[in-house]
Amino acid sequence: xxxxxxxxxxxxxxxxxxxxxxxxxxxxxxxxxxxxxxxxxxxxxxxxxxxxxxxxxxxxxxxxxxxxxxxxxxxxxxxxxxxxxxxxxxxxxxxxxxxxxxxxxxxxxxxxxxxxxxxxxxxxxxxxxxxxxxxxxxxxxxxxxxxxxxxxxxxxxxxxxxxxxxxxxxxxxxxxxxxxxxxxxxxxxxxxxxxxxxxxxxxxxxxxxxxxxxxxxxxxxxxxx
Length: 225
Known about the structure:
- By secondary structure, the chain is of the alpha/beta class.
- The chain folds into two domains: 2-164, Nucleotidyltransferase, domain 5 (2-Layer Sandwich), CATH 3.30.420.10; 168-224, Ribonuclease hii. Domain 2 (Arc Repressor Mutant, subunit A), CATH 1.10.10.
- The chain is 52% helix and 15% strand.
- The protein has nine helices and five strands; from the N terminus they run ββααβααβαβαααα.
- It has helices at 31-35, 46-59, 70-78, 84-98, 115-124, 139-142, 144-168, 179-192, 204-224, and strands at 2-9, 18-26, 62-68, 105-109, 132-136.
- A five-stranded mixed beta sheet has the order 3-2-1-4-5, with helices on both faces.
- Helix 4 packs across helix 5 and helix 8 crosses helix 9.
- The N and C termini lie far apart (75 Å).
- The model has no long low-confidence stretch (mean pLDDT 94).
């Protein structure tokens, strides 16, 4: 029996990609995940995640991550008019379909408010028929195999953000609540009147910056007279 666990990292940020991680093990070897200290990636420091992800890779039957760039997220929204949940459903299924061998049981961290619906939708997009698809909120904290997928996804996303910082400077964590991220977005838009391709432009944070900038320009033009 082959078991797969999937989770994402980067659902909420205004900057950077959404990354999905998938880890597969034989059911008889799942206990090893607990032995090496696998847990919800949000509870683990970046340094420990970097160590754990290598251990996970070494014991896994197969593992893979899928990076969905901010530009692709924007295109799917503006061109195909699909929601973030729908993007996740498509991409979770795409990643599972690419795994070899195909898993018998699949555990998911549910993105939908209705956890079972998330699993049913993804199952309907698969090119094979697994025995079970189990979708739970906070699946990364409930199932160690999902926690392993979470650690893989988070590690890959952190690496992508570091590459962006080399190119664009200190842009913070990429989350809307981060003052560094807000400052980077405001300064960049003020300078270029557009955002770099790493920004999800339909996030309210980005939209509000554009609105404030345009209102500021309008006010300046009025006071010029």
